[in-house]
Specification:
Elements lengths: L4 E3 L6 E3 L5 E2 L2 E2 L4 H25 L8 E3 L6 E3 L21 H10 L29 H7 L3 H4 L5 E2 L6 E2 L17 H5 L11 H4 L42 E3 L6 E3 L5 E2 L2 E2 L4 H10 L27 H97 L1
Antiparallel strand pairs: 1-2, 3-4, 5-6, 7-8, 9-10, 11-12
Length: about 400
């Protein structure tokens, strides 16, 4: 059985699978020789860069630098934020530089907190970029706002229980920033911050379960949602009699939580109908067969990096050359086959001509032998006639001589 083969993305040669190194149980795209060359080239480039930096360095030494894991650029250490801003300047720093962190924060949409599920009120929850900042008592009094009497000194708005609380109630994050939720909301699970009954107990009863005594209470519906500012503490919150609801991001309808599917113990934002509709609108996936010679022979290849136009044009030129070589090889094989057929036909014709010449020679030999036999027969006949004539002559002479003697 032939060993499985694979094409190297570096030297573009088809090599056995044993010539490719592995990393994290995955077969790399380049063979061992190309990988070694690339590593040596990178090491030489790093050496040249270090030599160039040392040669261009003046009396003032350059600040220490490191490579960013996001943009893979060599940047000074000061471009990497400290994990503990309040600690020492030589403390541990992030692996991603500040520009990459800013780009990532801009690209990321504001996340939706799980504690907002089941709290759909008239007004939407405050967005991350619309949170109210900390307002000192002196600044609020100087501004003449109405929050001077309601808001305590240096109070912070908690996004979990929706209340103004003093700063000591808020823990510190890993980067030293003040958390957006108080200690109670941080330690309390999201599904227990607003205690409510189970879905089975809060579901609407069937029509046959209604009695005549509560017939006038059938169409009352759930009680109105209380304002967020009046939301009491979690331990003081009474049991909710209505079914918890959520606004669907697809059809924009407020539906019960039983209409929303879950994934990894999280409630999704689109209902079942919208998800089914989205799946129907998607084009069908085309099932492609694996390449020839790679069926169940190697783990799935890693995702290839994006290639430049020059690399794509070089690949296309190499493919054209390979296709032309295949065509030339096929034409040469056809020519060799035609030449072999012509040679076989010539050999058969020569054999036929030799057989015909042999038959003609045999026919001539037979004719010559027949002529010789005929000549011999004529000679024997002539000899017989001569002997008969001689015998007759002697007999006649004998009889003619006898009367004369008498």
């Amino acid at each position: 059985m032939d060993s499985p083969e694979r094409k190297c993305s570096g030297c573009r040669q088809t090599l056995p699978l044993s010539d490719f190194p592995t990393k994290n149980n995955k077969v790399l795209l380049q063979c061992v020789r190309c990988t070694t060359k690339r590593r040596n080239r990178k090491a030489a480039q790093r050496t040249e860069n270090a030599a160039a930096e040392s040669s261009t360095t003046h009396s003032v030494p350059l600040p220490p630098s490191r490579t960013c894991s996001g943009c893979t650029k060599l940047r000074p250490v000061t471009d990497f934020s400290l994990k503990d801003p309040l600690g020492d300047a030589d403390g541990e720093r992030y692996l991603v530089c500040a520009p990459c962190t800013a780009k990532r924060n801009i690209r990321r949409p504001p996340k939706r907190n799980i504690e907002q599920v089941g709290q759909q009120d008239d007004e939407p929850p405050p967005a991350r970029h619309q949170r109210r900042e900390t307002v000192p008592t002196e600044a609020a009094g100087a501004a003449g706002t109405e929050e001077t009497e309601e808001t305590p000194a240096f109070s912070i708005w908690c996004s979990g229980c929706m209340r103004w609380l003093p700063p000591p109630d808020f823990p510190r994050e890993s980067d030293g920033a003040t958390a957006r939720q108080c200690e109670r909301c941080k330690t309390t699970p999201a599904n227990r911050r607003r205690p409510r009954q189970e879905l089975e107990r809060t579901a609407l009863p069937h029509p046959e379960q209604f009695d005549e005594q509560d017939a006038d209470h059938q169409d009352d519906g759930p009680p109105p949602a209380r304002l967020r500012q009046d939301t009491p503490a979690p331990e003081d919150t009474p049991a909710v009699d209505s079914v918890p609801t959520q606004c669907c991001a697809g059809c924009k309808k407020t539906l019960s939580l039983s209409e929303f599917p879950t994934k990894k113990n999280k409630i999704l934002r689109t209902c079942v109908r919208c998800r089914v509709r989205q799946q129907k609108l998607r084009p069908p996936r085309q099932q492609t067969a694996p390449p020839h010679g790679q069926e169940n022979t190697a783990p799935p290849p890693v995702r290839r990096p994006r290639r430049s136009k020059s690399q794509l044009s070089a690949d296309r030129a190499a493919e054209d050359r390979r296709r032309a070589a295949n065509v030339e090889e096929a034409l040469a094989a056809a020519l060799r086959s035609a030449e072999a057929n012509a040679q076989w036909i010539r050999e058969r014709a020569d054999a036929a001509r030799a057989a015909e010449a042999e038959v003609e020679a045999l026919r001539r030999a037979v004719a010559v032998s027949q002529e010789a036999r005929r000549a011999a027969t004529e000679a024997r006949r002539a000899a017989t006639e001569a002997r008969r004539a001689a015998t007759e002559a002697r007999r006649a002479e004998k009889y003619d001589r006898r009367p004369a003697e008498t």
